[in-house]
What we know:
little secondary structure
Amino acid sequence: MNGRVGDDAYIGNLTCRDASVVDYCIASLEVFPRFLNFKVLPFNECYSDVNCGLHISLKTNLKPSSKAPLSAPKTPVMCRPKWESEFSEVFKQNINPGRVEEL
Length: 103
């Protein structure tokens, strides 16, 4: 779908470090007409260290239920901490082998 549909049509935005396309979406010819939109999202360090997210919208034959929410509940986005290699020894020293075996 990259470079063929929606906001990414005829563009083919890069998905990794502004250098390559490593994140992609593949669809069969039967599913192709169901794509409403496809776009490569701006890089966000909370989700990945090098990759951009993909946003895909599909049309379905499902009708919304009056009991079901129309959108997913909003959950806070948590950024994962960056690995700092100078702390690798501290990390190793804090591993409890007995606890690891128990897990």
